[in-house]
Each structure stands twice: as structure tokens, then as C-alpha cells.
């Protein structure tokens, strides 16, 4: 088992690598959703995912990552901003 210091260092390294690759934010989470899995199911059942059909694919594997990839312990999510840095702030445009 790895020490807490090793895991903290690994998280910092992953976040740094993500920044180097151009991602603007990184999150690392456990795989247990608890009651959030029921909320996801209800959200999908109500069709609130609209045209995002990929949200409904794979059944429970979206909410249980270990079913998709056995042995999964954590999920790493990254965000990449695609709004050009040279573009005007959309909130300023809306408020104009």
C-alpha cells in the first residue's frame, strides 16, 4: 500500500501533467456514487440528457466504472476550455 505522501505527490503530478497537456482543470474521485447513482438513473429516465445519447449507453457502467474497467479505484476527469483566449468575455457581451 502506498503512503499518503506518495498518493498526494501522485495527485500533484497528474494535475501538472494535465496542465502540460493543455487541460484547464483536473479532478480525481472515488468510484462509489452512493445515492447519486439513483439520481443519474432518474435523470436519464426523464430524458433530461436530451440528445446526449452517450449518457444512456452502457447501462450501469457509467455509474460503476469498475464494471467498465475491472480494478478501477479512481476516476480522473479533465476539462479543456475551448473558448479562444482572444474572444470577448461572453458575460460582458450578454450584459451589453
Mean pLDDT: 91
| Fraction of helical residues | 25-40%
Strand content: 5-15%
Question: How are strands sequenced across the largest beta sheet?
Answer: 1-2
Count of extended strands: 2
Give the uncertain stretches in residue-range form.
Answer: none
Helix-strand pattern: HEHHEH
Count of folded domains: 2
**Given the C-alpha coordinates, what overall shape results?**
flat
Major sheet attributes: 2 strands, antiparallel
Rg, please? Answer: 18 Å
Distance between the termini: 56 Å
In short:
By secondary structure, this protein is α+β, with helices and mostly antiparallel strands. Helix content is 39%, strand content 12%. It is flat and about 55 Å long.
List the helices and strands and how they pair.
Layout: H1 4-20, E1 25-30, H2 36-45, H3 65-68, E2 74-79, H4 90-95
Antiparallel strand pairs: 1-2
Structural notes for this entry:
By secondary structure, the protein is of the alpha+beta class. It has two domains: 1-30 and 73-96, no CATH class; 32-70, no CATH class. 39% of the residues lie in helices and 12% in strands. The protein has helices at residues 4-20, 36-45, 65-68, 90-95; strands at 25-30, 74-79. A two-stranded antiparallel ribbon has the order 1-2.
Amino acid at each position: 500500500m502506498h503512503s499518503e505522501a506518495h498518493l498526494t505527490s501522485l495527485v500533484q503530478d497528474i494535475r501538472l501533467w494535465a496542465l502540460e497537456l493543455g487541460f484547464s482543470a483536473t479532478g480525481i474521485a472515488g468510484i462509489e456514487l452512493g445515492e447519486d447513482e439513483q439520481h443519474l438513473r432518474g435523470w436519464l429516465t426523464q430524458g433530461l440528457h436530451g440528445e446526449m445519447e452517450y449518457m444512456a449507453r452502457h447501462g450501469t457502467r457509467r455509474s460503476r466504472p469498475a464494471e467498465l474497467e475491472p480494478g478501477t479505484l479512481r476516476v480522473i476527469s479533465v476539462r479543456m476550455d475551448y473558448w479562444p483566449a482572444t474572444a470577448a468575455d461572453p458575460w460582458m457581451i450578454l450584459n451589453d
